[in-house]
Each structure stands twice: as structure tokens, then as C-alpha cells.
Design a protein that fits this description.
This protein is 54% helix and 6% strand. It is mainly alpha-helical. A hairpin with a 6-residue loop joins β3 and β4. 35% of the residues are buried.
Amino acid sequence: MRIPQPPPRFQELAAKLRGDRMDAILEAAPAAWPRDRYLHWDDLRRHPGPKGLTHEEWWFMLKLGRMGKLRPIPLRDRNARPFVFSLPDSLLELLHGIDRGLGSAWTLPAAVTDPAARDTYLVSTLIQEAITSSQLEGAATTRNIAKEMIRTGRPPRNRSERMILNNYLTMQRIRDLRGEALTPELVFELHRRVTEGTLDGPAAAGRFRRADENIRVIDEIDGTVFHDPPAAAELPARIAAMCEFANGRTPGFFLHPVIRGILLHFWLAYDHPFVDGNGRTARALFYWLMLHQGLELFEFISISQILLQAPVRYATAFLHAETDENDLTYFLLHQADVITRAVKALHDYARRKIALLQSTETHLQRIEGVNHRQLALLAHALRKPDTRYTIAGHRQSHNVVYQTARTDLLGLADRGFLTVSKVGHALVFRAAPDLPGKLESSAQDPPGPADQTLPLRLSPAP
């Protein structure tokens, strides 16, 4: 990772480009605009420019066109200069795609949107976001181990697992906070939740960093400083202004909800108000704002799993904004692309899950007296017959009360589909021997004459 080369200063270029040369630049303007990309100088200088223009002249034309479209937000840098953004066509196209993806919730499979089953999918998304958000911050554990910890309710064994559990519980808490206004106290609460038990100094949770803590973002290998946040003394006023922005009181013009959410994410990350956990808190605030603004489908969207695929691109977008006169358009484009891909992942996931569910239910639906949660467990037991199931895990997976989970599992055991044993104080359930055969013998014949060419054959998937 390296710091992008800062662009030439626009004012200095304007002073150099006069007379006949300026006429030639203006004449070449139509060819100077890359239609599909918002290039930073560090990228532009590596591309061949329009014929007859130097790279500096090409950059001058781009900046001249961009400057008239930039709008300020209340966030200011260390030198009190405002951050600005624009809405190029490429960003508007991404926002349109996000709107369509979020607006098509009614076309998602009923297994995702139906209240009877949606919590199962919601829990899976919360677990996915908790794991990948923590991995972005250095958590080191496998997804299977993390999922097992959350679903079974066992205590975390190390700091990495604690980070993941904290993120999971915080995401659940955000669902309850969606109707509240953002305040500094609420920001502190979210920070405490994501960092509890993971900081070297526990007293640093839920408070601003101090001046003597000298927090900077650096390369741990060569010591390069990527980001030097504002002074600690400024933080109370800066976070108060951030809350005003998050609550829609500033700026004095309309902001698309996704744009506001991305800018809130950047704001917290830029101010870096805590000794650690700033990234996790920034993502938590983004989710809070999306739900606060009524974008309910974000409950099912994990942005961290997309960010984890290419973390350097996130850092580069951040640095592009900082090195090009506080132009946040680079960061907006990157994050809007991440959200677009996350929305697509949701729809792809829903299609895969409903296809699997329909295939399984083709066989299992002939068994009377089995609800959708029990069907899901039986389908899983067919694929992974060695899995142990507990009441706590079933409750967590489907977001139901203890008694409902207990009734589900004991009901399956009573019918011989599961075996049950006691481990300590907990009941442990496993797939019964010859579960496929038991299910086949329990299946009811469909109405009408039986089709002997389509016998019911259930076996664990390889």
C-alpha cells in the first residue's frame, strides 16, 4: 500500500496555462472527459491523454469541469477546509441500481421476505457481517468456528471471537435503535459494544482518544503515515456536528439516503475519535443510518464481505479523497459500487436458497405436521448428518423463543427423525440413523395414482 501521488494544484496550473495554450486546451475539451471513470491524478498520469494535451493540461480540464459541480458538507479537514462531493453520471447510475435493488424487496422469494421465515435469513446475514467486519480489523478465526460460537451461544475463547460476537450483538442492537436520533452518547454506546473485551486498555471503550494517545493510521512495516486525524481537543465539536449531519439537519440541501450513509461512514473514519475500533464503529453507524432512513432491506445486506475481498481499494478511495482537495466523490463511487455488489449478492443468495428450499420441500413437504423451521433443520441434517443441534442454537438460527425451539426439536425427536442425549445440562440432538429412510416412510402419498417412475429417494448430499 502506498500513498497516491497528489495532483498538481489547480491554481498553479491556471497561472501557467495562458494565452494560445489555453485556447488549445479549451478546443480539446470534448475529448478530455472520460465518460465512465472519475480518475484521480495518480491514475490519470498513467493513461494516454487526449491528443495534443499534456497530462497536466488534461488534469486542468477535468478539474475545471468538476469544480462547478462540487458541493460542500459540514465536515472539515485538519486545516478547516471543507470536504466536497459531486454526482457524476457513473455515481447516479450506481444509485439508480441500488434503488432498484432495494425497491425490489417485494420480488424477493417469500423465504426471505415472509415474516414466518425472514428471521432465519436475517440471522445468517448478521453473522456474515459480524465475521467479515471483524476480519477487516484483524480478527483471525474461521467462519465455521465463528458461526458455531454464535449459533450455539458458547462464550468466545479469544479476542478474535470476542470481536465477532461483539459485532453480532451490536448489529442486533442497531435494529432496536433505528428510530432514535444519533447523539454522541449513542456513538459511545456503539463503540463500547463493538470493542468490549478487545482493547488493550479497557477504559478506552466508549470515550474519545486523548491527546497523549497520538492515534494515527500507519503502515506497520515501514511506518508510512496514511492518515493523521484531527486533534483530540476538536473531537467533541466534530462529533456533535457529525450527529447533526446524520440526523438530516445539515447540509441545507437534499442528500440521497445512501450518499448520506456513505458520508457518515467516511466522517467517523476521518475523525478517528477512538483509540481502536473506528472501522467497526463507522460501519455500524452506516447500518444505523440506512435503517433509520427506512431502507429496511439493508438488514439483509453485508457490505463487509465485499470490502474484505479488496481492502486496499477501500483505503485507496479514502486516500484519493484526502489527496485531491477533499473531493469525496472517489469514496462515494467506491462505496456505492460495494453496496451495489452487496445488493446483487443478496438477490443471488435468495435465488440459490429458494431453489434449494424448493428442491428439498418437493420431498419433505409430503411429511405432515412439520413446520418451516423443522424442514430447514431436516434439510440441513440430510446434507450434514454429523451435525449436533441444540435448543439454544435452533433458537438463535431462527430468532424464536426458547419454548418454540424446544418444541421444534423434541417434536422431531418424538417422530424418530432426531436422537436426543444430555450433555451437561443441555439437550443435544443428532440426525437419526437412516434418516432418509425414516423420512421416506413418513412421507404421505400424493393424491391420485402413484407414479412408480418417480420414487422418493432422499440421501445426504456429497
